[in-house]
Description:
By secondary structure, the chain is mostly helical. The protein has three helices and no strands. The chain has a domain at 52-153.
Amino acid sequence: MIKKISVASVATYVMMALAMPVLAQTSTSTPATSTPATTTPPVVKGKKRVDLVCMQNAVVKRDDSVLKGLDSYYAAAKAALTARKDALKSAWGIEDAKARKEALRAAWKNYREAIRKARHDFRSVKRDAWKQFKEDRRICRGSGEGDESEGADEQL
């Protein structure tokens, strides 16, 4: 028991002896007559400072553009579905089989074309928004520190 206590005491003494020089560092306070430190961080050579407000504005601009494109896409898709519904309903009311078949084909063809155009227009809006964002990011000196890429909007 005494052996355990003496080993613990020696270990504590050694640790304190090693820690004392670190704790005994002298304070380097500035004299009262010196000028106060500036709040501007020093300029580091080779590194550009990012304009954070500019980057915030670039993100808002990009995402607002994508949101407007998404609203347009949904409006076009809704219009295409409504037109398809009305055309199919009318087509199924035609007694003549040949005319009905042609009307059904036309309804589906028009729907596919409308949806294809809506998707194409939305992709163009997304592409343009990201292209503008990349330009804005370059101007703001943002380096793409986040996970920002066009692929993030692929699921839209």
